[in-house]
């Protein structure tokens, strides 16, 4: 009896389509994985497993061990308050009406105490629909709610999907579950008939058992499980590369894309003429990987071999024909590349600069040539800000001068992915210094989260200048990023600036640099946003970027981020912009002393001192104990001890703040803590808010100095006790 009390079955859904984009397949799989389990859980359904499959011609879902009948839903319904439900001990119309609407009797109600008093409650058991009926409704929703780029209509209907749907398999308890997708004058009805590989098994395939779905299609030359296709592809690539004594490069992004482009993969070795190896390797691999989805092959010295590997979705018996076709394609692409390369090298990189006048940076901001001049100005200011020597400054200026020149070369015109890299190559060929050449390619970095950062001073400075010009210019036009809309990737640019400064530990005053850049911009574009408004907007913007990077990339606790940047204190953001590296140093230090327990040694006393210090008027930047403490007013021994402790420790604290030696600052605060604690709670403790105003002010100033000392690390009031 127990075995039959919870009968379960399997459900299979397959949506057959025309060839889907690889990105949509991956996205759809992810969307179903995130959605389907919660939908089932709402009805109390607990399947044994949920598997989502995808190929270029199908999306599929297999749910095993799914209850045929969902458990009944127990619903607790809140009714009127007890005072409204009864009058003189008799049920009122309000209560009787409530019961009538729910088909219940007085015997079924209970009374429960809530925050708003006692209320009538009714517990009812609601029978759920059979799982099959639920699935019929869910399936239409699961299919129609899939999101993707450029969804299309077909026929005369309004149904939208990534590509036209050609068949629908829907099996529940091994029987066809009727599902229809209406589409104008047509309709797509479910059946148990799928289709195999378009070339190797073009006819229909009957799915007789849901649990055998993957093996049935495998027999029809369709591997529906993406992880298994990936394993097959990787193994085949490695074997083919080994056959020519090489090693294949398998970029993860390319592999993920190719997995979703084939149903029955076959790795095929192709060849090209060795003369093309005279091209820069980046040109060859860009043609292979980005444009043709081929995998490059290297020798033991990591030099490119005149081979490539392509993954075919066709008939393995036609491998030779497929190879020849792919070889013709890559030969033509590499021949174009060689022509562009030779033509570009016919003149030095600098000769391309006049053509930048014909390239628009942004309609209201002029040409790329004008932008280059702005980059040079900002780069010069950064060099001054950093105190760089004349030689380094000259290299930076030369890098800024040439950084965009390759945009108008023929090679970059054909292969935009090579911008920067071709600039580096052409600069080296033209006799520019290695620092200038490297700086040209590095000034585009980083291009995304986790990307490499510039390693040369030329690359770092020009990258910051380029990104800062873009941010200030676009903000100046009033195009501030909102929500998820950031068409100019300004958040990424700001993150790049901060990460470059952090990584290289540049002593750059970003606040001063922003001010200089804003002034130059508003002078050049009088109709732009006013400088004062622009300054406030950009400070807020960079403050948000600081916060995001500390929380998400550096994994700093949220309250420690608030301690460093403040929750609503512009002065802390300004401090951070004035010393960008210090923001990260302090945040990491606070995280460290929280984890190792050292924060507990000072937390209570610093916080208590800071709270009381707000009652006084001591400037938050004062650390001069002799200037603000009247020694003749110190009457109690603990006050005098407090004063002496500050006299001893504040010089260390000032040194620590000036040198960013926060271990020294912590040591000084730790040394102060016992005295401050006894000032509050020891046998000799005193009343801070003394009736004598002079005594009170003195004591508040003592505490204010402790607060100011700790503020070198951050606002301890924002830190949550743990």
From TrEMBL:
GO terms for cellular component: cytosol. It comes from the Bacteria. GO terms for molecular function: arginine-tRNA ligase activity; ATP binding; glycine-tRNA ligase activity. One of its GO terms (biological process) is arginyl-tRNA aminoacylation. This is Glycine--tRNA ligase beta subunit. Its EC number is 6.1.1.14. Keywords: Aminoacyl-tRNA synthetase, ATP-binding, Cytoplasm, Ligase, Nucleotide-binding, Protein biosynthesis. It is found in: Cytoplasm. Pfam families: DALR_1, tRNA_synt_2f. Signal peptide: none annotated. Its main location: cytoplasm.
């Amino acid at each position: 009896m127990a075995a039959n009390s919870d009968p379960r079955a399997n459900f299979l859904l397959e949506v057959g389509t025309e060839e889907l984009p690889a990105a949509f397949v991956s996205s759809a799989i992810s969307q179903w994985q995130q959605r389907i389990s919660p939908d089932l859980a709402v009805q109390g359904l607990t399947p044994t497993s949920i598997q989502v499959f995808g190929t270029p011609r199908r999306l599929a879902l297999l749910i095993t061990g799914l209850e045929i009948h969902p458990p009944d839903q127990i619903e607790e319904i809140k009714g009127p308050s007890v005072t409204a439900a009864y009058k003189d001990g008799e049920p009122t119309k309000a209560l009787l009406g409530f019961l009538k609407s729910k088909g219940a009797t007085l015997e079924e109600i209970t009374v429960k105490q809530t925050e708003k008093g006692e209320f009538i409650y009714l517990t009812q058991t609601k029978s759920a629909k059979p799982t099959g009926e639920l699935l019929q409704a869910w399936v239409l929703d699961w299919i129609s709610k899939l999101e993707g780029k450029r969804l299309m209509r077909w026929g005369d209907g309004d149904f939208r999907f990534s590509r036209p749907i050609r068949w629908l398999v829907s099996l529940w308890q091994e029987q066809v579950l009727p599902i229809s997708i209406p589409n104008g004058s047509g309709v797509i009805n479910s059946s148990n008939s799928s289709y195999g590989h378009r070339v190797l098994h073009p006819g229909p395939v009957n799915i007789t058992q849901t649990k055998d779905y993957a093996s049935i299609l495998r027999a029809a030359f369709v591997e529906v499980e993406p992880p298994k296709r990936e394993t097959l592809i990787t193994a085949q690539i490695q074997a083919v590369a080994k056959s020519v004594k090489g090693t294949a490069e398998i970029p993860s992004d390319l592999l993920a894309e190719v997995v979703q482009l084939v149903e029955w993969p076959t790795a095929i070795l192709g060849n090209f003429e060795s003369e093309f190896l005279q091209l820069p390797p980046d040109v060859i691999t860009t043609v292979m990987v980005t444009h043709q989805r081929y995998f490059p092959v290297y020798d033991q010295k990591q030099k490119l071999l005149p081979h490539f590997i392509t993954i075919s979705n066709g008939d393995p018996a036609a491998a030779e024909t497929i190879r020849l076709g792919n070889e013709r394609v890559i030969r033509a692409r590499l021949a174009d590349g060689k022509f562009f390369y030779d033509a570009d090298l016919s003149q030095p990189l600098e000769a391309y600069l006049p053509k930048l006048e014909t390239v628009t940076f942004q309609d209201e901001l002029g040409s790329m040539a004008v932008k280059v001049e702005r980059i040079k100005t900002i780069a010069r200011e950064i060099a001054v800000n950093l105190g760089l020597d004349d030689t380094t400054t000259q290299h930076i200026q030369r890098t800024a001068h040439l950084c965009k020149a390759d945009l108008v070369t023929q090679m970059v015109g054909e292969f935009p992915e090579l911008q920067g890299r071709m600039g580096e190559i052409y600069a080296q060929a033209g006799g520019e210094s290695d620092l200038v050449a490297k700086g040209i390619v590095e000034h585009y970095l980083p291009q995304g989260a986790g990307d490499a950062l510039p390693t040369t001073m030329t690359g770092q400075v020009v990258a910051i200048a380029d990104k800062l010009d873009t941010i200030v210019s676009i903000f100046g036009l009033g195009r501030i990023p909102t929500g998820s809309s950031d068409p100019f990737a300004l958040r990424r640019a700001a993150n790049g600036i901060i990460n470059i400064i952090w990584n290289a530990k540049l002593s750059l005053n970003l606040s001063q640099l922003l001010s200089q850049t804003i002034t130059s911009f508003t002078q050049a574009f009088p109709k732009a946003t006013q400088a004062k408004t622009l300054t406030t907007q950009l400070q807020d913007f960079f403050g948000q970027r600081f916060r995001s990077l500390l929380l998400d990339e550096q994994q700093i606790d949220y309250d420690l981020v608030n301690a460093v940047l403040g929750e609503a204190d512009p002065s802390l953001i300004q401090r951070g912009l004035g010393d960008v590296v210090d923001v990260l140093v302090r945040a990491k230090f606070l995280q460290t002393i929280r984890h190792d327990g050292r924060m507990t040694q000072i937390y209570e006393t610093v916080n208590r001192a800071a709270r009381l210090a707000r009652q006084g008027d001591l400037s938050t930047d004062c650390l001069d104990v002799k200037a603000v403490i009247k020694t003749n007013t110190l009457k109690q021994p603990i006050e005098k001890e407090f004063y002496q402790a500050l006299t001893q420790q504040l010089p260390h604290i000032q040194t620590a703040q000036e040198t960013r030696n926060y271990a020294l600052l912590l040591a000084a605060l730790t040394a102060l803590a016992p005295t401050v604690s006894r000032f509050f709670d020891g046998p000799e403790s005193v009343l801070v808010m003394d009736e004598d105003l002079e005594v009170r002010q003195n004591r508040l100033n003592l505490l204010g100095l402790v607060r100011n000392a700790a503020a070198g690390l951050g606002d301890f009031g924002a830190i949550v006790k743990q």
